[in-house]
Amino acid sequence: MHKRMGEAVARVARKVNDTVENKTDSLDLANCKLMAFPVGVYKAMRSVTEGIHRISLANNELKSITSRFVTTFSQLTELNLAGNYLHRLPEEITSLLHLRDINLSRNRFRRFPEPLATVPALETIDLEENEIAEVPTDQLASMASLRSLNLRANPVGPEVRLLVRPLVPFDLLLSPEEPIPKA
Fold it and tell me: From first to last of its 183 residues, what are the pLDDT tens digits of the chain?
């Protein structure tokens, strides 16, 4: 077990070092078995955080994203948090003024993460396979940049199904309705 954990830590260190040394605009820590964002990464990346535009933390074991993460990587345009155990986002997510694409599919959200409704540049929100039943339709309808909202495989109520163009200026992706069983 210790050997596997050591390999995972080494993999994260390699990926962080590659990003810093090559001054790339993305950090890919997907599939690294992370339970939290490693605090040491903040220090290791402090010289390049402003240049990071894309981060993937997909398919880890994250239960939360901290406000420090959001404020450190303030220039993000894409954030992939799919396949974790997230159920909420920090309010500071609203400070990501350049965020265009967020993937929160396959998490534990029971409610639409309302802070997203005030992220000005947000074009794509993927919330497929969560547990969302209610959606703040008024807030979503006022999101000027939103182009696509994926709510497939969520137990959304019938009022969400009534949201069609021109009421909302974006593509709303839903699972097909279950047929009502005959008695």
Answer: 556 767 878 899 999 999 999 999 999 999 999 999 999 999 999 999 999 999 999 999 999 999 999 999 999 999 999 999 999 999 999 999 999 999 999 999 999 999 999 999 999 999 999 999 988 888 888 899 999 999 999 998 777 777 655 556 788 888 887 654 455
Residue of 52, 148, 144 whose CA lies nearest to 96: 52
Stated pTM of the model: 0.91
Q: At 15, which amino acid appears?
A: K
Q: What is the DSSP string of the chain?
A: -HHHHHHHHHHHHHHHHHHHHHT-SEEE-TTS--SS--HHHHHHTTTTGGG--EEE--SS--S---HHHHHHTTT-SEEE--SS------GGGGG-TT--EEE--SS--SB--GGGGG-TT--EEE--SS---B--HHHHHT-TT--EEE-TTS---HHHHT--TTTSSSEEE-PPPPPPPP-
What are 149's strand-pairing partners?
125, 172
